[in-house]
Amino acid sequence: MRRQFDRRVLLALSSLLLYPLSAQAQKTTPPFPRAGATKVQDNDHFFAWDATLGKGKPTGTYKLDLDQVSVSLTEGAKKLTRPDGTWEIEQERLGSVRYDPKGTRLREECISDTPCRAMVFQLKDYAVDPWPTREGIPGQFPRINTVKLFETDRITVWDQVWKPGEPVVRHAHYHRTATVFLQGGTIQAIPDSGVPNPPFTRKPGEVLANVKFSPESHIEEEFSGLPRAIWIEFTK
After folding, report:
1. In angstroms, what CA-CA distances link 145 with 72, 127, 148, 163, 164?
2. 15 torsion bin: left (phi>0), alpha (psi -120 to 50), beta (else)
3. Cβ distance 92 to 148 under 8 Å?
4. Cβ(78)–Cβ(87) under 8 Å?
5. pLDDT digits (tens, 9 = 90+) for 48-105
6. Which single residue of 50, 78, 84, 138 has CA 20 to 30 Å from 35?
């Protein structure tokens, strides 16, 4: 009788101890919407969120239903914690990029005195039809003063600076793109006609979506400032 009682007590205690851990591991929330985040783009290909975390105000543990690319807009540090309790410190620089695949479970906490701000792109599961190409006219990438940061089976991510006196050669856009500017400035495009378009100014944190096909090719050049942007190129 005593053995049976002891066994029941042990089983009950084990259940009590294991249940909170199991529940904690399974309890997740969507990454967005959340406090401090504003949706700035929503199209067939991606959502873009301007997300700021203050020190000591962590997110809950979230589960990603979509692939996600985060571009840091500030300097600082984040603590990233996984459901099993393991964690790492991520040093943030202007233009740092992190890719988290669908299914990732994570908790983010800004540990810098300065709030951590990022532009977060959620990549929708959308099958794209390829755009037509033009013989003899190169695509948008690779290009001058641009570094390939990484690529997956769906996207390639580039870091570009427009510099004075170093124009981007004539090209056409054969892939859809999402862009966030890290540094502002003014850029000018010169289309096939040779007549420059009016210069356009971009601000830090501005997001652009190029998801509609245009057959026009053009040259790009810096007009003022030193614009810098992170591009997400949808290759599939």
Report:
1. 20, 30, 10, 8, 11
2. alpha
3. no
4. no
5. 999 999 999 999 999 999 999 999 999 999 999 999 999 999 999 999 999 999 999 9
6. 84
pTM > 0.85: yes or no: yes
Query: Tokens for 64?
Result: 């990603």
Q: Which residue has the tokens 């299914």?
A: 103
Q: Which amino acid is at 129?
A: D
Nearest residue to 55 (alpha-carbon basis) of 108, 107, 120: 108
Structural tokens at position 21:
């851990």
CA dihedral 123, 124, 127, 132 (to 10 degrees): -50
Backbone angles phi, psi at 128, to 5 degrees: -95, 140
With beta carbons less than 8 A apart as the criterion, state whether 166 and 223 touch.
no
Q: Closest by alpha carbon to 88, among 65, 75, 107?
A: 107
The values of phi and psi at residue 102, to 5°, are: -50, 140
> What are the tokens at 168?
């981007």
Q: Could you tell me if 104 and 63 are in contact, meaning their C-beta atoms sit under 8 angstroms apart?
A: yes
H-type alpha helices, the chain:
2-26
Task: Select from 73, 66, 63, 89 the least CA-distant residue to 38.
Answer: 73
